[in-house]
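User: Hi! I'm working on a homework problem where we have to compare a predicted structure to a textbook description. Could you give me the structure for the chain below?
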Amino acid sequence: MTRTTTRTTSRTTARPAPTPAAPDPHAPALEVRGLRRTYGSGDDAFEAVRGIDLTVPRGRIHALLGVNGAGKTSAMEVMEGLSPGSGGQVRVLGLDPVADRAEVRRRTGVLLQRSGFVGDLTVRETLRMWAATVTRARPVEESLEMLDLARVADTRMRALSGGEHRRVDLACALTGHPELVMLDEPTTGLDPESRRAVWALVRRLRTEGATVLLTTHYLEEAEALADHVSIMRAGEVVREGTLAEIVAGHPAEISFRTPADEPALPAGVTASRDGDRTVLRCADLQPALTELLVGARDTGVVLELLQARTATLESVFLELAAAPAHDLEGATR
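Assistant: Happy to help. Predicted structure tokens:
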């Protein structure tokens, strides 16, 4: 018996793949609406990011701050396209960081808290390998010079100090001339001189038109760099604005070593003790300080280790970190 196979050919009309919408060149560099991220499910679910909103205009430096566990890195990973959110919407340069991953990856630079470079490669080999993965890559020698790595260019990665390793991480993040740079703790492990060199580099990126989103535990770093600040606590943004907006309404502080004879205190100040120091908090620094100094002069009281400062990002940050959760309701600006 002979088996005959009949092949039936059906003709189908191929449908062209939909053309993705072109991103709006005037859209913010980063726009987040109602972002949520949950780990686990059911009774074991933990919501690390609880419906945050964030807008970063192009050409700005924006600092995302918070204590450990506030949700910063969980939010950053969604913005970077490394993990999907559990709810809400994220747009990076007008694009979806997951659906438009290839295009977003080409136009952004990401610095993670930890990298996984091969320890046997030299710094130059590492940068050369990374440059091969991006379009419009910087010359390796330019990257070495930009991050002060020329002197360790032929050193193997495993032999680098923590600070040198961090500079290699940053050099890789900037290899592709990114429009948006997302930096998670960029200066961890750096000495003060290297940290300030990185600050100068971040400012240069802004001058050249790039946008920078960074997280940092160094509040001095945020004060020195950021055009705009968002402070997270327990997965929510509890305060945001320019540095001036964030510290507005918070008291200035005057402190000195507590003398044997207490000086007359200015009107309207709140006094407390911190070890062997007297701490005064006031709404208006200059008249309070003037009144204190005149009173000390007239009574012959010497104020040792006198310090006076307006409200700082650090003082606001610590106040928010310590405040009961119910006191933060409605605090977002």
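For your comparison, note the following. The first strand starts at residue 30 and ends at 39. The radius of gyration is 27 Å. Good luck with the assignment!
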